[in-house]
Write a structure and sequence with these properties.
Strand content: 15-25%
Largest sheet: 8 strands, antiparallel
Radius of gyration: 28 Å
CATH superfamily of the largest domain: Glycoside hydrolase, family 3, N-terminal domain
Structural class: alpha+beta
Number of helices: 19
Number of domains: 3
Distance between the termini: 46 Å
Number of strands: 37
CATH topology of the largest domain: TIM Barrel
Helix content: 25-40%
Shape: globular
Amino acid sequence: MSDNNTNRNNPLWDTGKTMEERLDYLVEELTLEEKFSCLGTGNPAIERLGIPSFFVGCEGAHGLQMRHDQSFDQGEPQPTTIFPNPIGMSGTWDPELIQKAGEVVGTEARAVFEKDGRRGGLCLWAPTIDMERDPRWGRTEEAYGEDPYLTGKMASAYIRGMRGEGDNIRCGATLKHFYANNVEDGRVWKSSSIDPRNKHEYYLEPFRRAVTEGGAEAMMTSYNEINGVPAILNHEVQKIAKEQWGVHHVVCDGGDMKQTVDCHHYFGSHTETIAEGLKAGIDCFTDDIDAVIEGAREAYELGMIDMTDIDRALRCHFSTLLRLGLFDPQETNSNYGLNLPEFQKLARQVTGESIVLLKNDEIDGQKLLPLDCKQVTSHHKLAVIGPSAEEWFLDWYSGIPPYAVTPLQGIRDAVNNPENVIFESGVPKLKIACGDKYLGLLEDGETLGLVEEEEAEIFESVLWDKEQLTLKAESNGRYLTALDGCDEDEIYRGGIFKASADRAFGWFVKEVFHAQINITDLKESEEKGMSLAVGSRFAEILENEEEFLLKAWNGAGLYVDEQNRIRVMDEQGFAEDGEVRRIVSCTDIQGHQVFAGDLKMDRRGGIYETVTGRKYRTLPALCPVLVKNGVKEAQKAAAQAETVVYVGGAHPMITCKEEVDRKDIDFPVYQRQLLQAVYRENHRVIMPYAISKKFADELEELSYQCRHFLNTRSAFTTPAAEDEEEPDENQTTTFDAEAAEDTE
């Protein structure tokens, strides 16, 4: 908040008065229009009462998220302390440790609050305590597992750490998502059918514990319907969460007022939604504030709500703000900080405890773990193999870590002789031919276009599942990404490609391409339900230089414009300078004119003409030219080494994320072949990343003995520093993989 104390000489700012007295004054003094404006999560300033503009909510699933990379959340990015994902924190089985992590999150949230002018964001939208009924759920890493008791206990500990002791809380917790939120595909319209026993014993139990034992301040409703009623209209919010458990305020999920009309089709207007939502117990609507104000005003004028409904919501909302100290004098000489050394030490401890050793079989009478760093020598080399060994990934709710250590770097730092650690990613490097041209970077060194063979770019290509892949340019080490062409409403209308992304990341991950087998009649094959994914044939396609098709992140076809740039187009047409240009005619590959109305843009080759006269030609099928065979190079590395550490698995931003469910839990197709090839050369394989139970069974059937999971804390024994204790390898929990079937 601003240091300007003008107009703050009133009961709202009088800390000597009770909360009820301060709230009484607030609802009495606010005008009707001002009350409407306070029903959103981004509240405008009310200067006559000394109330500055402020916002509600901020992410904090496993550390404070201060990326500020969304259109509604702009600002200077700030690194914060990052802990393991909640599913990992749950794996510690240590509530006291997780409470300490929560203390760090709450302290850093308060530090940012004081630093940034006390504008809000202290009631974090975390933790997520949805029940993880299916491992394919895109938000599996975001919650604590499938057990309601464990989830309730771990979340409660995290919350107690965030809030601190006493009535005035350091940082509030907003539980997500109330309730029965277990699927992302169709989440904004699907209905979860819940019987009374499952509701009370399973779905509601972690919420109850998190409130009554943890002291959660608030709650966020889910997108889905519950037995046919959208969660934003569920009266159990008021009757159970508020009246029985004591939740102070409730916010709906982002844009859900609008989605109740547009997606659920439950009501025909925002007016009905906001009226029924207020009566159901919703206090804040996470929608466009103008739409919230308009809907509330109309509902009031039509008599669908009265002042009692509005004031009840405002009292709930502002009671939290009062407990958070938004209307108290600004603190001086506070002890809050970001990324303090003790915070980083705790993060390392939680990370170590979150990792569970599932299997450590003997090979030749000797267990592989723990490894002795002194035994990594020129005669006993260690090979690190896998597409994730030299990468570190952000999930959607991750903050910016103050530093990052890749698995490869961490291993090299741990051994006495890092030059004896061999690294191979195992992924192919290739040039991509396109007719008599190649894909390459144009004069600016970033923009993707068609070039001569001698100018062809070399790409590192990683297939993350059956068809989704990334392409990283060797010349600058950056991923190909689609740069938006947007209309004035920020609706995506196509764009060009540049090798400019440091990582594959975003709400829409535009660094992804869909690799599909080039078959003659694409349309007919899709209609027959034939698989078009390159899948298990990817390695063969690369070896034999077979043609394949590439589509953009959104499934759209690729085209070449008059400037020789590779572009992506959606069904509305091409984009130039932000303006949508529609197709008026097309000449197919046989030279025949095709009516635009009969055209499926990404299916057939040809030349397309826009209303401005610009012409675009379809990017034909592509042919890979192997520069480096990743599998063979990985085999060579494995053969030279005493032991192999394989670091791989799915990419958290590509195969699933927030609004994207996994299609399956198979080990990535190409990586399966890579790992099997590595194992043929060296049976001493350690796998530090969890794999699916299905793939684990495959390895068992093939008599593989590589289900070994690396504990990064105790994988290496190093001489203890004078002030440090020797790590205890017995601290790692060991249990049989078969017994862990339901948790994988």
